[in-house]
Design a protein that fits this description.
86% of the residues lie in helices and 0% in strands. It is an all-alpha fold. The longest helix has 19 residues, at 3-21. Keywords: Mitochondrion.
Length: 22
């Protein structure tokens, strides 16, 4: 697994959490 894919995954998770809070 590359670092870029991990960053991307974390970013998507962060966005999903933000959407649930909104």
């Amino acid at each position: 697994i590359s670092i870029e894919s991990i960053k991307n995954k974390n970013f998507m998770n962060f966005k999903n959490i933000n959407n649930k809070i909104m």
